Structure formats: C-alpha cells, structure tokens
What does this fold into?
Amino acid sequence: KVAIKGIERELICPACKELFTHPLILPCQHNICHKCVKEILFAFEDSFADGGSESSNQSSPRIRISASSMDRIDRITRSGRKRNSLTPRSTLFPCPCCQRDIDLGERGINGLFRNFTLETIVERYRQAARAAIAIMCDFCKPPPQESTKSCMDCSASYCNECFKIHHPWGTVKAQHEYVGPTTNFRPKILMCPEHEMERVNMYCEICRRPVCHLCKLGGGHANHRVTTMSTAYKTLKEKLSKDIEYLISKESQVKAHITQLDLLLKETECNSERAKQEASQSFEKLYHVLEEKKSAALRAIETSKNIRLEKLQAQVGEYQGLLENNGLVGYAQEVLKETDPSCFVQTAKQLHVRIQKATESLRSFRPAAETTFEDFVVDTAKQEDVLGDLSFHSNGLEIPEINEEQSRMYNEALISWECPGKTDSADIYVLEYHKLNKEEESVTWQKTEVCGKSKVLSDLDDDSSYTFRVRGYKGSICSPWSREVIMHTPPAPVFSFLFDDKCGYNNEHLQLNPRRTSVESRAGFPLLLGSERLQVGCYTTLDYIIGDTGIAKGKHFWAFSVEAYSYLVKVGVVPSNKIQKLFHNTHDVTSPRYEQDSGHDSGSEDAFFDSSQPCTLVTLGMKKFFIPATPAAPKDPASRILPLPSCLGICLDCDRGRVGFYDAGCMKCLYECEVDCSGLMYPAFALMGGAAVHLEEPVTAKYREYHDDI
It folds into this structure.
C-alpha cells in the first residue's frame, strides 16, 4: 500500500492551496473545490460589471488566483460577451491547473460531478493526520461522547447509546449502512447532475464522464459513443492498474531522474550566481565610466571657474585704481603736484596714455569673463533612453514586425504584429507610440503591455501622424525594437451610419446585406431593357442609395471600399432638401457624349449634367478614381485619372462648407471642393452595372488583443 502521507501534493486544490473540500471534476479532468469554482466564477462575473480585473483581485482571500488566470479572465471579459442575454450561453471557466479556458456548458457548475473517490482519500488522509483527534457524537447531550460509528444514510456520527436509540431493531433505520467514525458522507448512488432523479449507469467515451439513459436518448450525449458502467469500471481499472504497475517497476529510473534533477537544481543555483556576478560586473563598468566622466566634467568646470575668477578679480583691481586717492588716480594726483616742467612732461606722457585707456574702458564697460556655464551643460537624454532600454538581449527571441496590412486607423487604432518565424516565443509584448510633432525636440514614447499580438488604442488625436514600434519579452529577456511604422489618423471623428433601405431604395436593382453595411448592383435583365435606347442615345439611369443618418454640423469622416470589378460608382454627399430630386433626376446618365439631336460631339452636354446634379459626387469605376473636370483641375484628361485606392474616405466639414475625398489607407486627400451645407447632409452612393460598395467596419471590441492558451 502507498503511504497516505506521501500523496499530500495530490490532495491539494490548485486554487486555494488547501486540502480538497467537495472536489468537482472539470471537463479537462482536473479537480477543484466546489467553493473555489464558485469564487472564481464570481470574480469572473464581477469583471464583466466593473470592466476589468480590479474587482476580481478583491475576491475572497481564501482563493489565490494566479496572474495568468486573471489575465485570461480579463481577456475573456474584453472579448465582448454580454451578460443577462436571453439566449442560452455557455460558461467559460479558467482552469488554474492546465491554464485553459474550459467550457462548462449551459448548466455551468451544476453540470459538474463531485469526485467522491477523491473525497474519501482526502478524508483518510485527514484521519491519518489527526489520529489523536476523536470525532464526537452528533446527538449526545453536552458533554458529547466520542462516536463509535457513522451512518452513511443519515450522514451523522453516533456513540453506541445514541446509535441504538436512533436505529432501533425492527425498523427501517436498522438496515442503514454504517462505517467507522468519519466526516465524509457520500451518497450510495451517483445521480446525474442534468437529470437529478436519474442515476448514472453509462459512461460516455467521448466526454469521459458518467451519464444516465436520458442523456443518451435525447440529451447532449445522444450521438456519442457510450458503454456500460461495469465495462467502463473494468476497463479503466485495468488500465490504471497496469499504469501503476509500470510506474512501480520503473522506480529505479524515477530515482535516477530525481537525482539528475537535484543536480540540475544545484547547477541552476550556481549558474544564477555566476550570471548575477557577470551582471554586477557589467554595471560596475558602467559606474566606473560614469564616475570618470563625472570627475572630468567637474574638473573642467572647476578650472574654468578659477580662470574666470582670476580675470574678474584683476578687473576689479583695475577699477579700484580709478577711485580717488587709490591706484592710478592717486598716482596721477601726486604727479600733478610736480612743479618742474621737464620732470612733469617726462612722467605725464606715459601716465596720460594709461588714463586715456582707463577712461575708454569705463565708457565701454564689459566684464572680463562670462558668468554663465551654458557650455558645460551635459546632455544625457540619449544616454537615458539607452539605459532605459537596457535589458538582457537574446538572439533566440525573434524581432516582431508590425503588419501594416492588418493594422487599421479608423474610429480607433488597431495595431497588429507578427513574428517572422510564425512562432510566439515571447510571453508579453510592449507597444510604444508617439505623435509626430516637428516643434517638439524630444520624443516621449507612450507605452502599453499586451499579452497577444494586437492592440486597440483609443486615445489618439484626429488628423495626426503616429510612430509605432513593438518588442517582445520573455521573462527578463527582450528582443530589439521592431522597425518603426508611421500611420495617420482620420482627418475628423468617424461618422457611423448604415445604408438606408427605405428612402428611395430600389430593391429590384440593388441588393443589401442583412447588416446594411454592403450594397451590390448587378447587371441583370433591367439593364438589358434599358440598353434598347442605345440606338437613339446612351441614357441609362443610376441606382442611388443614401445613409440612414444625416449630419447637421461639425466635421466628420467615413470610409468604404469599392469592389475591383465595379463598372461605375459615384460617391459623395446630398442635402436633405434635394433627396427627392436625386431619386427622380431625369438627367442621371452615364455619358451622353453622342445624341442624334445634338448635332456635334463637343461635350457641352457633360457640362450641363455636371451643373445640374443635386448632390456632390465623384466617379469611380474600372479600378480608377476620376477627378471632376473643374477650372482648377488639370486640363489633360489623363492626369485627372488616378488608381482606385483599396479604401476610400470622405471628410465633410459642414462649418467650412467643404467635402474632401481621401485615400483612407494613407489619409491623403485626392480631391476637395465646396459644397452647400445649408440642410441636413447625407452620405450618397450611386451604382450602375456590376458594382459593390462596402462600408468600413469600425474597430470594436472583437479586434482587441487575446491570447489563446488552448
């Protein structure tokens, strides 16, 4: 027999780190206390209400949720799952043992089995650990007597006298099953948690759990492979016995591995001490370099100070000589007392030169030395940045690369990155970004830690450029910074709307998706009927559709993409007072370049149609962007045709009365013109032939970073 005290580590709950109390079996086959499951789920649910893990960390002190489990709770919270939904939903549980997010199904904790076998083993361990502590009778009057047996049917312990009183001969209670004193009472029959009145009599080989016949007939195990409980008992017991026998036979090998692991523990201790010494030596070298630089700088400042003080003190002495009865002035006054002309002239000539110099210096006073030490200011900004990035670099940690195709700048910024080797060798990533500003000399990077490979930023300014970089961390080891990527935010706040399926919508020619974010025009039979007029002209109407929300004031931006196969698409804005005219405009044509009654091909008809349009639109099609023919536009038609961007944007400034058309990928303005914003403005689209337009989806919670541990 295996000693009870030798298996203590198997009887510890991974959540509370105490002996199991009413352990439940998770779908991943790990065990956890019933109370711990509830507390983790409460912490999980609280994170939804409070929007983060702060409240989760304030859960019961009994439970110790690991940092990785809390990260997974926060991640699942940010994944967009809503509470109080009317539709059935499954319950996710972060297993503290295998670090996976386990689906508990719709029944949640009520669908889990109690591990009665583990309960019995824990109880035996407790009895062995407290052999000197007796279990007292539950029915004795004070003082209670020591119990001699426990009834499994009554779930109570009795002394001999109380057992006879409560289980008299000749009654049903006399047939109850009793065992030695215990506090672990388990039911005789294991009941199904989904069908509480049914006992389990089968074993699902797919889910690896006991089930009842109702689960097999019409429950969640209807199509699963099941076997009888006796067969499963026999099979699993044989497998477990063989595995135990195999492990016992390999006892010498296990001991050898333990010896090897002990050596590795000692080697790890020695290597860590050696690494500490090497790191200390590296920092000591930096200290010495800094001390030398510091000493040299202080010596230079001290030398310069002494030289300046000497010059200034000499200048003070010279000016003191200009005072009466002092220095030069006093000497000159004594010379003036000389009465012999020849002697006076001999001395006064040189003295007069000195007096003139002193007079000139007095008129143009200038200190002999500067008092400021601006030339001795030490600029350590670059060195501080280098020291801030000082860490353990490893060649084995790959440098991440920002994926510009998957990254987006719209209502929020979605920054995505990947590793060249397609392996996630880093435990965590650090994303840094800063706004490009030519006026600022120093750059201040904003930093955020990410568990996955993408991050949504919502605090960026409109109409700005930002630089992004990312690096990976694995413990204290980090990779070098990725290549810096510059991205541009939209020129104005993003305006959200859907296609209007009521106002003027032609469902015979246009087709909307259920979410009303995409519209498609198909060149079908109606277009062929309209083409009959080709013999007398080329009049073919466009099919218009507008947004379901209008703009009254301010500056707004929205983006969309046009399918490459689209033949003709017009995009722009329309005022509310001209919507009816838009849908009933008889001059809505493709290109009436030639008509029998015009008599020439001058293109004057085009000017008529451009001026008569009720809304401001630009033409797209055949993978091209056509700049409208205006006096300010180039005269050469070829120079007015640009490649069609993968994503287009429109910026409407109602306050200034201008509308701009942008390449939404780089936020570059392709064309801008004036527009009448006297009424409520609506986004407008027109399609003809085979064409499709897709509104750009805003960056929402579903794009937020996550890391799948399963």
Residues 231-364 form one domain. The first strand starts at residue 23 and ends at 25.
